[in-house]
Amino acid sequence: MAATVSDLLLDWYDAHARDLPWRARPGEPAPDPYRVWLSEVMLQQTTVAAVKPYFAAFTTRWPSVEALAAAPEADVMAAWAGLGYYSRARNLVKCAAAVAERGGFPETEAGLRELPGLGAYTAAAIAAIAFGERAVVVDANVERVVARLFAVEEPLPAARKAIRQRADEVTPDDRAGDFAQAMMDLGATICTARDPKCLLCPLSEVCEGRAAGDPARLPIKAAKKPKPVRQGQAFWIEREGAVWLVRRAGQGMLGGMRALPDDGWSARGNGTGEAPLDASWDSAGLVRHSFTHFALELSVLSASVERDPDGAGEWWPLERIEEAGLPTLFAKAARLALA
DNA sequence: AAACCGTGGGT
DNA sequence: TACCCAAGGTT
């Protein structure tokens, strides 16, 4: 009888699984659902290398979902600074509160799916990895592996339905969590987006994409739109060894994060060029920063003042600027201003 | 349902 | 350099 995809993949995983801080080794008991949840949210659209130091910091500072739920939201947002996609941090706080309130994580895919910040992928991943449920886990790695394995010629995103169906067909009843992690490891290390290592792949003998001759061209994706370049200004306002920081609105770009005052630049257009107060401004330089859907040229203006700017904000000590939790854009601006 | 939402690393 | 990409979710 021919070996199934899941047999081949699980055998490979038993020998080659990556050793990651949030993961149990093959055969060990399932890890703490809190650690699975936290890692899965951090890993959304984010590389393993980027997540590792944040995962270590969060689990040290907040060892349980109850501890995280009890933390001030500002502390969690500041600890997330630099990881990106800050709605994840806002939802992390909401989710921790909901889980602590109900006395633990839901143990089913459907129950998990109701929590803030958990979509189809993350709910399935936690159900399978932490609770051993047979859930169909489809992320970008699985899409790529499945598209190649079954030579799916339909372009993404239209192919998602067919890919999910194929993924369901190869997902085993037992070890669904290991199977999901094996698919993701395969996608991350062997069946990579560029230059797949087919000679090392446990599925090479059954891969229809390889049989067809050019697996690397799959999955087929639509061309990306060009990013506009926007111009804006940020203001470095000093008084008595402190800098004026504001908190951005809860929705939208860098929502909920501490920030420098700026002139209202956005994805849609340039800033107004208007400063938040009259002062003698010096140019501290230009920050070029690329977001997902636009690029920003941010000119940083610096001044010393003797009164508070209008509106809400706080004077933050310069020597503790690293602890302010500025997102990377404004951390770059601060570096310029302090240079 | 297409658009919005970060960042760092690889090529 | 410029572009692509990564364990997606929300609206």
From TrEMBL:
Q: What is its EC number?
A: 3.2.2.31
This protein's cofactor list reads: [4Fe-4S] cluster
> Which Pfam family, any one, appears in the UniProt record?
NUDIX_4
Q: Which reaction does it catalyse?
A: Hydrolyzes free adenine bases from 7,8-dihydro-8-oxoguanine:adenine mismatched double-stranded DNA, leaving an apurinic site
Report the SUPFAM superfamilies cross-referenced here: DNA-glycosylase, Nudix
Q: Is the keyword Cytoplasm in the record?
A: no
Q: What does this protein do?
A: Adenine glycosylase active on G-A mispairs. MutY also corrects error-prone DNA synthesis past GO lesions which are due to the oxidatively damaged form of guanine: 7,8-dihydro-8-oxoguanine (8-oxo-dGTP).
- State what protein this is by name: Adenine DNA glycosylase
Its source organism is Qipengyuania mesophila
